[in-house]
Amino acid sequence: MTTLTKEAGVPAPAGDGPLLSVRDLHVSFKTEDGVVRAVDGLSFDLERGRTLGIVGESGSGKSVTNLTVLGLHNPMFTTIEGEILLDGQELTTARESEMEKLRGNKVAMIFQDPLTALSPYYTVGRQIAEPYMKHTGASKKEAWNRAVEMLGKVGIPNPKARAGEYPHQFSGGMRQRAMIAMALVCDPDLLIADEPTTALDVTVQAQILDLLKDLQQEFGSGIIFITHDLGVIADMADDIMVMYAGSAVERGSVDSVLHAPEHPYTWGLLNSMPRLDSDPSIALTPIPGSPPSLLNPPSGCRFHPRCPFQDRVEGNRCVTERPLLGAGESACHLTPAQKRDIFVDEIKPRLG
Amino acid sequence: MTKDLLLPAPRDEGADAGGEPLLEVSGLTKHFPVKGGFPIRRTIGAVQAVDGIDLSVRVGESFGLVGESGCGKSTTGRLITRLMEPTAGTISYRGKDISRASRRELAPIRSEIQMIFQDPYSSLNPRQTVGKIISGPMEINGIEPPGGREKRVRELLEIVGLNPEHFNRFPHEFSGGQRQRIGVARALALEPKLIVADEPVSALDVSIQAQVVNLLQKVQRELGIAFLFIAHDLAIVRHFSQRVAVMYLGKIIEVGDRDSIYTRPRHPYTHALLSAVPEVSVAGEQAPARERIRLAGDVPSPIDPPSGCRFRTRCWKAQDKCATEEPPLVQLSGNRAGHLTACHFPEEPTTEAREEDIILDPALAALEEDTSKD
């Protein structure tokens, strides 16, 4: 396979700041039932070439955050407050024409379901070539060759012939590879992968995850990887952010969050998930209750109605005061010593 | 119908070598015809969804069936519950062949084999109240439990952890996890002996999955109901099942008790499957490294499966023999009793890392060669 070299015009990194910096982001939607506060005070940074894994259940705001970064929400019904800085450029106030220049070029996205994300009407090659033509001004022929090259890169056998085929002629794993090729065709600085392997089988998932990791080394993109599967995060990410009901509850490196988690919700996730090496005779410990409605979120700590440890915090603070997330910590009122003791004494033994 | 619910107490795992078989399946086959041609449409092929599988589920046992999508695990579940007619093979329940039984003959058995479906949204009738949904099976089978059906429904709601007061609510008033509990209550309504659970938790959020898994486990142990647990999640199947069968393209390629399958797998596909599961290692550095196997491509089409061993097209050990001769499902030397493998060239019984990773995906291999050169 030929080597991939980015054509002239690589933008010089603006300063040494993080690639993406989200500050106090609030996203709310107006619905018939009221205002849904889908993201509520979220801040995080992503460095170049790093992978940030965002884990959370459905409705935790992980996908909404990333659609906001791409500017894909309908402004009619969405209120966005806060800052999103990509290489120093503010995205929340950017005009649509500016966003258009970014999408598919500097920021690209891989969606969960490749069959609905790819157009059934155009050939796979054409769909990959299109953003390349738009953003680099390449001719049709150049773009087609580039598409074929990218398809080869992501492991599609006989890429020359397959580029002329339609998405329905591809299998699930192949379609997701084509999506990756499309996302990487312009060598993006930031790649957002929203549950890219959830629809795939486990052996195919393993191929795609490894492929993404290897391609990241080559392309040097920063990746935001959204998933509900802690195992996938452990495999893929450098840093983890755990989201619950619209905000981050815990953040840190993969090692610290998975081996010394501090937030009761993270403990709950770890305890409720069987692993291949856990002791099957130990019953799982589910998180009681179900995720809250974002129309009318609980007061104080959003997790308090489901938290088994709230009685260990003095003065009912869990109900009255919302805990804040400092750098590399967890948003919980328990003291650091309590968190350490609870994890070591009560949570870890149950992990088997 | 037999009303006795005096079933043997739940046995400890490991001690399951004996036990009376409740369900025995042999040579079970289901081919779906593929029609085509113009102007007269005729059968031009068949999707060989399930192609001659043998398995047995013992009284009170939980039997796991794992495999990737399209391997025929759900079809197997539907054949066993007789929601579909098998093309060939026999299904015998308590020694009685039910594979060709008529509706009338099946009626008493239907109540003993129940099913829990994957999607709690489409498996409950939105126009019926919870009470009606759960009492439906009793009504159809003309069962009048002591104290009336309503009392029984309330009991069932309590067993599955729902508020009995919610008797008159509709499914849309419940969350996904609660709906799945309603599905479990419905399956329990007729005091079944066998429940076929087809991906019962895969539509649920992680934190809710554990609630439903624990509920099913409670039901299985306390009421002594045998389970055929169908899922693609290897960790959940391991947690739930005493014995596990691995399916690939309509065939069972390996079956055995849980520990044997998960720690001493012999079939290359089982190795690949286990090595592909992304894992959170809680032990950190101390845990032994797992082997890394990356297959190439996807599962072939069941319309035209490979000859001989069906896994050979993606197998790193395949030789000429694999293409011509289908490997029988037998006990290999060194395996525990009951651990059967269908492979001509089995792997070593370990899941620990090998000297060299097996990377069959050409793109992955090329990329990794590049990075290792740098």
UniProtKB/TrEMBL annotation, chain A:
<dbReference type="GO" id="GO:0015833">
    <property type="term" value="P:peptide transport"/>
</dbReference>
<dbReference type="InterPro" id="IPR050388">
    <property type="entry name" value="ABC_Ni/Peptide_Import"/>
</dbReference>
<keyword id="KW-0472">Membrane</keyword>
<dbReference type="InterPro" id="IPR003439">
    <property type="entry name" value="ABC_transporter-like_ATP-bd"/>
</dbReference>
<keyword id="KW-0067">ATP-binding</keyword>
<dbReference type="GO" id="GO:0005886">
    <property type="term" value="C:plasma membrane"/>
</dbReference>
<dbReference type="GO" id="GO:0016887">
    <property type="term" value="F:ATP hydrolysis activity"/>
</dbReference>
<protein>
    <submittedName>
        <fullName>ABC transporter ATP-binding protein</fullName>
    </submittedName>
</protein>
<feature type="domain" description="ABC transporter">
    <location>
        <begin position="22"/>
        <end position="270"/>
    </location>
</feature>
<dbReference type="InterPro" id="IPR013563">
    <property type="entry name" value="Oligopep_ABC_C"/>
</dbReference>
<keyword id="KW-0813">Transport</keyword>
<dbReference type="InterPro" id="IPR017871">
    <property type="entry name" value="ABC_transporter-like_CS"/>
</dbReference>
<keyword id="KW-1003">Cell membrane</keyword>
<dbReference type="GO" id="GO:0005524">
    <property type="term" value="F:ATP binding"/>
</dbReference>
<comment type="similarity">
    <text>Belongs to the ABC transporter superfamily.</text>
</comment>
<dbReference type="InterPro" id="IPR027417">
    <property type="entry name" value="P-loop_NTPase"/>
</dbReference>
<dbReference type="InterPro" id="IPR003593">
    <property type="entry name" value="AAA+_ATPase"/>
</dbReference>
<dbReference type="Pfam" id="PF08352">
    <property type="entry name" value="oligo_HPY"/>
</dbReference>
<dbReference type="Pfam" id="PF00005">
    <property type="entry name" value="ABC_tran"/>
</dbReference>
<keyword id="KW-0547">Nucleotide-binding</keyword>
TrEMBL record, chain B:
<dbReference type="Pfam" id="PF00005">
    <property type="entry name" value="ABC_tran"/>
</dbReference>
<dbReference type="InterPro" id="IPR003439">
    <property type="entry name" value="ABC_transporter-like_ATP-bd"/>
</dbReference>
<dbReference type="GO" id="GO:0015833">
    <property type="term" value="P:peptide transport"/>
</dbReference>
<dbReference type="GO" id="GO:0005524">
    <property type="term" value="F:ATP binding"/>
</dbReference>
<feature type="domain" description="ABC transporter">
    <location>
        <begin position="23"/>
        <end position="274"/>
    </location>
</feature>
<dbReference type="InterPro" id="IPR027417">
    <property type="entry name" value="P-loop_NTPase"/>
</dbReference>
<keyword id="KW-0547">Nucleotide-binding</keyword>
<dbReference type="GO" id="GO:0016887">
    <property type="term" value="F:ATP hydrolysis activity"/>
</dbReference>
<dbReference type="InterPro" id="IPR003593">
    <property type="entry name" value="AAA+_ATPase"/>
</dbReference>
<keyword id="KW-0813">Transport</keyword>
<dbReference type="InterPro" id="IPR013563">
    <property type="entry name" value="Oligopep_ABC_C"/>
</dbReference>
<dbReference type="InterPro" id="IPR017871">
    <property type="entry name" value="ABC_transporter-like_CS"/>
</dbReference>
<dbReference type="Pfam" id="PF08352">
    <property type="entry name" value="oligo_HPY"/>
</dbReference>
<comment type="similarity">
    <text>Belongs to the ABC transporter superfamily.</text>
</comment>
<protein>
    <submittedName>
        <fullName>ATP-binding cassette domain-containing protein</fullName>
    </submittedName>
</protein>
<keyword id="KW-0067">ATP-binding</keyword>
<dbReference type="GO" id="GO:0055085">
    <property type="term" value="P:transmembrane transport"/>
</dbReference>
<dbReference type="InterPro" id="IPR050319">
    <property type="entry name" value="ABC_transp_ATP-bind"/>
</dbReference>
